[in-house]
Amino acid sequence: MADPKGFLNHGREVAQTRPVDERVKDWNEVYVPGSLLPIISKQASRCMDCGIPFCHNGCPLGNLIPEWNDYAYREDWSAAQERLHATNNFPEFTGRLCPAPCESACVLGINQPAVTIKNVEVSIIDQAWDRGDVAPQIPERLSGKTVAVIGSGPAGLAAAQQLTRAGHTVAVYERADRIGGLLRYGIPEFKMEKRHINRRIEQMRAEGTKFRTGVEVGRDIDAAGLRKRYDAVVVAAGATVSRDLPVPGRELNGIHYAMEYLPLSNKVQEGDYVQPPITAEGKHVVVIGGGDTGADCVGTAHRQGAASVTQLEIMPQPNEERNTTTQPWPTFPMLYKVTSAHEEGGERIYSAGTTHFEGDEDGNVQWLHLAEVEFVDGKLVNKPGTERKIPAQLVTLAMGFTGTDQENGLVSQFGLDLDARGNVDRDAEFQTNVPGVFVAGDAGRGQSLIVWAIAEGRSAARGVDRFLTGVSELHAPIRPTDRSLTV
Q1: CA-atom Rg of the chain in angstroms
Q2: Is 420 exposed, middle or buried (0-12, 13-18, 19+ CB in 10 A)?
Q3: Is 2 a residue whose pLDDT tops 80?
Q4: What would the mean pLDDT of 442-453 be, rounded to a whole number?
Q5: Fewer beta carbons below 10 Å: N end or C end of the chain?
Q6: Which of 44-53, 118-127, 257-266, 357-366 has the lowest mean pLDDT?
Q7: pLDDT tens across 280-290, in order?
Q8: 248: β partners
Q9: Under a CB-based contact definition with an 8 Å cutoff, are residues 131 and 77 in contact?
Q10: Cβ-Cβ contacts under 8 Å for 46 (sequence gap 6 or more)
């Protein structure tokens, strides 16, 4: 145990963010560089090393949290990163982007602020990179088997790295021009600088993983033909079909899916554009959707110089504290969150439904008409007399995703079965109805969290390894039917 009295002697301290007026002028990560290291040993000491560590259940990766908290407290960074990497291929991703269901399940969180597990995690891995402890793990021998991984998001990368380290020859196919999937083009630079992805890709290349960018399986190459070329295939193409908003005026110019808008600012940072083709500069911006993707749109609009930013959410405003009756510990509660993007300004409107859009004579959106909504007989309906309009010269739709892309031919060319929710169906080994074709991540689970994507990639890799060799020593933290710890 780190410090038996740590949780009694120290309160919760989190990463320090840079001043708002400074950070909205650049695209660097919002946190003060190096601010965690002076406090992280004390924060790690707050871990109680519980007899039953429920943080393990909150985290689908089964991270060995009390163990690496203990090492971080003692500042044994090499041992801490070894324990961290034992269950997580990319802790620098989860440490920055995961909403931390592990902290919601922290035993200390029953009556005190939970341990800052995410901050400890990211401190350990950043130290590991700085100290040179992260090295390629090149397999001792090759199996002679080949695997194609379709998609280079966290699920695809985790599966590829696990299978490469098991000795298989792995090629990753990515339809975008750079590796990383939503990590690359869905996450703004201010939440995670892309240098973190780049050095992991270099590590994977050194281990033997091959990458093929600008290749969309189903359009550029035939999926069935790909299956014949490889001994196994992992479909990790994500759930990339955005949920639409079919209301009058949807066809007006200036209304875009979040995933049409966000990647362009990332491409500016990559040097592809001087200015993004879609920009919020000088415009009244409305973001429809109150989740993390919506918050990413808010922060991006601030940095592009929006005249105003308004975020709409159709559901009521959540509580700021856990409701122990409806969302008891250790479940993952739906709470009111103030992200770094919300700290930077803008208005948030809850219980708001969009009725229609209004444009100018040139077909450009100018106004968004909304009404308050309420539940009546279990359905959301507009409240009479609450209709109003707000200025909207750029609208981003950030209402989630409905499933994997079926228009590109990948699903039909493989002949994959879908489940009732439109996700690719799979068995207990993550294998589809087509022998040798496996599915991992959002393509099989539906829209989910980065930590679940990595867990899916690791688990699917074990299924592939067993399919190819008959046995596997790879770690499989979850089953396809496992779900988040919620009510």
Answers
A1: 23
A2: exposed
A3: no
A4: 96
A5: C
A6: 44-53
A7: 999 999 999 99
A8: none
A9: yes
A10: 6, 7, 10, 12, 108, 115, 116
Q: Which alpha helices (DSSP H) does 177-335 contain, by range?
A: 182-185, 195-207, 223-229, 258-270, 292-303
- Residue 486 predicted with pLDDT over 80: no
Which among 9, 13, 106 is positioned nearest to 63, based on CA atoms? 106
Pair 91, 122: CB distance under 8 Å: yes
The burial class, CB within 10 Å (0-12 / 13-18 / 19+), for 361 is exposed
Whether pLDDT at 1 is above 90: no
pLDDT given for residue 487 in this prediction: 64
> pLDDT, tens digit, for every residue of 225-243?
999 999 999 999 999 999 9
Instruction: Show contacts of 476-480: CB within 8 Å, 24+ apart.
Output: 477/60, 477/61, 477/62, 477/87, 478/60, 478/452, 479/428, 480/426, 480/427, 480/428, 480/430, 480/444, 480/445
Instruction: Report the distance separating Cα 370 and Cα 380, nearest Å.
Output: 14
Q: Are strands 437-439 and 352-359 parallel, antiparallel or unpaired?
A: unpaired
Q: Is the bond into 330 cis (omega within 30 degrees of 0)? A: yes
pTM (2 d.p.): 0.96
Task: Dig out the tokens for 31 from the structure.
Answer: 């946190």
Length of the chain: 487
Amino acid of residue 464: V
Q: Provide CB contacts within 8 A for 225, sequence distance 6+.
A: none
Tokens of 134: 């992260």
